[in-house]
Fold:
Amino acid sequence: MLQKPRGTRDFLPDEMERRRMIFTMKSGEGIIEEIYGFEDKGGRRLALRPEVTAAVLRMYVNEGRMLPKPLRWCYFSDCYRYERPQKGRYRQFWQFGVELIGADSAAAEAEVILLADDILRATGVAYHIHVGHLGPMKSLLKDLPEPEQRAVMAFLDKRDVDGLRGCIEGFGREDLLLSLTALMEARSLDEVFAACGDIPERRRIEEIMGILNGQGLRYTLNFGIARGLDYYTGMVFEIFAENLGAENQILGGGAYRLAHLFGGDDVASCGFAIGFDRVMVSLGDIASPPRIRIAVVHTPDAGAYALHVARSFREAGVTAVTNLIDRGIGAQMKHAAKSADFVAVLGGREAESGTVTLKNLASGDQMEFCLEDAIAEVKARGSC
Ligand code: HAM
Structure:
């Protein structure tokens, strides 16, 4: 069984939830050229991950096989591809992804597409969805050797008809041109099956689209989608942002089988990954939500109390900064005015009585409160 590299760790959902809570509490082939490969000091050949699906399935085989299926896992992770950088295409980028492991059904595949739609809608990006299936394309190409199939599929994926013609002529299979272009351009399932004939996957394809139609999903049938990664076996889908240029694909996914490559059972899986950086480019300059900031200003004798006050504000979810350099109250106030909404002014008297003299920098109002009331007053002014 393929093991994770020494000294690296996998976190199953329960553990991941605990890790996340600490911060949120209270407050294939095509990819090989793009791989950042290296040898570690022990001579092991490693790579910076170009995507996460393979790692998730390796983790499933290592740690998750006994868990009740289907599993619904998600991740947010950095990935690395040795690509020519441009806007929306980076060598280091982030993917948010979802893998549904252990359900071989139209319901599972449709659920994954609908989830992608729900998530992207929540981000506010304008997008359109293309859904396809590799069955028809593979059935038309079944007599070609695997490398030739891949070459043809790459042209179909790019919708490059001239390239496609040249490619299949080179393989002496001009006879395929008509059905392949008909498949690529098909906009209804009738047109798809007219191009490829009555294939075994027909029922599954009809069922998936039936569920999507039943949920009122707006999408385009695209049986030219081949996907760049080799592990896909059936349904494939891609989502494009409407306001991006060349690098407008913000999501890719589909049904695949990978677990057997890592020594596991041949489990059916499906999922997708969202290119988080592209979503950010598509959304443009969005203002970050306002955060209330308080500067804690103090005399030298109230240093310990200032730290206590700052920590209490932070615990309540308010961003609090303390003075860390040797300067007088006047200089501290001047600095606070540049970056904070409130100032907590603390001297020996406040330290002794456990109070805070709170100044609202917008209104100029100043009042003395006990610490809890000062926190409540600041929090009442806005989301922290
Ligand atoms: P992918 O289409 O290769 O699929 O990548 C998913 C998304 O990552 C792309 O749609 C794109 O938005 C983003 N992306 C890819 N390369 C870059 C880059 N160089 N810079 C910025 N964004 C990029 C996969 O990776 C599959 N693992 C998806 C999947 C999950 N299939 C099943 N489960």
